[in-house]
């Protein structure tokens, strides 16, 4: 039995069909064990012995059919996320109000992320790409009052099969997986 996190794209807790209790019910209905949510932004942890290769599609089909959620589902196993935390790619940096440490997870394998894709954006600092976690790591400067169009640029560069979480959220998801 392995522990997984489903990182759901496009979840808005104000939508009644996207509330944690309904999301968890879909996962329970799929027969997963120890289903729990981390925060209210589409992070569901669960345990299963099912083949991980089929999980993303099965979960997305169920979310679409039962709740009308068309967004993407990205799965990461506990070992992958724990190893990412242990590598500490943001060593010495602090997630705070004016500086967001972000992790963008890719659904599919990519050979290399374009680490220069934000060179012209003074509000975005690229830390790197973690191949094992398939994650693009960045620091977003929110201290200026103007918000960078970070998500739109990510989608333009990499498409919609991605989802972004703050570093604090990733830490909370892993903690929930270990509970």
UniProtKB/TrEMBL annotation:
Domain of life from the UniProt record: Bacteria
The name this protein goes by in its record: DUF1697 domain-containing protein
Provenance organism: Nocardia rhizosphaerae
Segments crossing the lipid bilayer: none
InterPro entries according to UniProt: DUF1697
């Amino acid at each position: 039995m392995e522990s997984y996190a489903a990182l759901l794209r496009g979840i808005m807790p104000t939508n009644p069909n996207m509330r944690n209790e309904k999301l968890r019910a879909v996962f329970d209905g799929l027969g997963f064990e120890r289903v729990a949510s981390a925060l209210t932004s589409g992070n569901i942890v669960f345990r299963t012995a099912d083949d991980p290769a089929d999980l993303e599609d099965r979960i997305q089909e169920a979310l679409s059919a039962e709740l009308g959620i068309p967004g993407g589902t990205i799965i990461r196993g506990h070992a992958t996320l724990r190893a990412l935390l242990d590598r500490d790619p943001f060593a010495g940096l602090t997630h705070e109000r004016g500086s967001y440490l972000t992790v963008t997870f890719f659904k599919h394998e990519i050979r290399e992320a374009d680490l220069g894709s934000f060179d012209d954006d003074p509000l975005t600092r690229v830390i790197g790409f973690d191949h094992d976690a398939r994650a693009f790591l960045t620091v977003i400067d929110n201290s200026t009052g103007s918000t960078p169009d970070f998500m739109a640029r990510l989608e333009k560069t990499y498409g919609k099969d991605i989802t972004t979480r703050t570093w604090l959220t990733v830490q909370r998801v892993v903690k929930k997986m270990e509970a």
